[in-house]
Write a structure and sequence with these properties.
By secondary structure, the protein is mostly helical. It is built from 11 helices and 2 strands. A hairpin with a 2-residue loop joins strand 1 and strand 2. Helix 1 packs antiparallel against helix 8, helix 9 crosses helix 10 and helix 10 crosses helix 11. The longest helix has 31 residues.
Length: 298
């Protein structure tokens, strides 16, 4: 394997790892803030891909108009998702009720996407195009060629990850959300409206997943099968340590790189390779890279 191939696969793997990291961060935020595992995260990514494809290809909106409108759409989807899949069941006596509801929501999102945009896969032009021929722009460094789409995906993913860390580590709004998550009753006594913090959490979660859908749309065909990418995000969460955002990001990047380099010898079995790596991590370090060590039972 020559250096050109190695660099190309590494960039490809890191860019896909960023997509998985955006989904994984959303999963961790819901677990930490609400205690809910969301099995519709991949389908929210799919829905985001369809929304941005519709705004860009069908409505032909310029980028400066498409971005704020798409973010508004993501916020609406997040609020609707919260009030249908979580809020009515938040006090259910059956603990798994909210988890099961997200499974139903995943199927509903697929059906809605099929109803609105049809069942046929749709193509999305590259976000970084060559001005002369309209094809995907390529960065050339010596003999190495890298698509700018992959580089842009890495940059956008890094920016969103940074913004989430700033929100929860530096801003008062993030501290309120964490306080409400730790003790909802105490938060209400202090005047922190938990319904608003929950809404904010869902909006952020959907924005992360949907942005991933926007970035991945030009790489894959936009279809309701994009939801299957959620399995890679789950693998990243397991490798990093459930409940740890930094671990989820690192685990997702590992999954992206493993997936990219496994195409050399195991292109038809890369899914199996990815999950064999996840199982290997579980055998060696069950708590994940950043998880707390599981105490031995007496």
């Amino acid at each position: 394997m020559n250096i050109n191939t190695m660099v190309s696969l590494a960039v490809n793997g890191i860019s896909m790892g960023m997509i998985y990291a955006l989904m994984a961060m959303g999963l961790i935020l819901l677990i930490r803030a609400i205690g809910v595992m969301n099995f519709a995260q991949g389908d929210l990514l799919m829905f985001g891909a369809f929304i941005t494809c519709w705004l860009t290809v069908d409505l032909k909106l310029p980028l400066w108009a498409m971005i704020p409108i798409s973010m508004l759409c993501f916020a609406v989807v997040g609020i609707v998702f919260m009030f249908t899949a979580y809020w009515p069941l938040r006090n259910a006596t059956y603990p798994a009720a909210t988890v099961i509801s997200t499974m139903g929501a995943a199927m509903a999102l697929k059906e809605i996407a099929t109803l609105v945009w049809g069942s046929l896969p749709r193509s999305m032009p590259s976000l970084m195009k060559n001005a002369k021929n309209g094809k995907a722009a390529v960065l050339k460094i010596g003999t190495i060629s890298i698509q700018w789409q992959f580089i842009l995906t890495i940059i956008v993913g890094a920016v969103f990850i940074f913004l989430v860390f700033v929100l929860f580590d530096k801003l008062y709004a993030g501290r309120m959300m964490q306080a409400a998550a730790q003790d909802k009753y105490a938060a209400e006594l202090l005047g922190i409206p938990t319904i608003l913090t929950t809404m904010a959490t869902y909006v952020i979660v959907v924005a992360l997943a949907s942005t991933g859908g926007y970035m991945i749309a030009p790489i894959f065909m936009v279809s309701n099968t994009l939801g299957t990418l959620q399995l890679r995000a789950f693998a990243g969460v397991v490798i990093g340590g459930v409940g740890n955002i930094k671990g989820a990001i690192l685990g997702s990047l590992i999954i992206g790189l493993v997936e990219a380099f496994s195409t050399i010898q195991f292109s038809q079995y890369k899914d199996a390779v990815v999950f064999l790596v996840m199982i290997a991590f579980l055998l060696v370090r069950p708590q994940g890279l950043f998880g707390e060590k599981i105490a031995d039972k007496a």
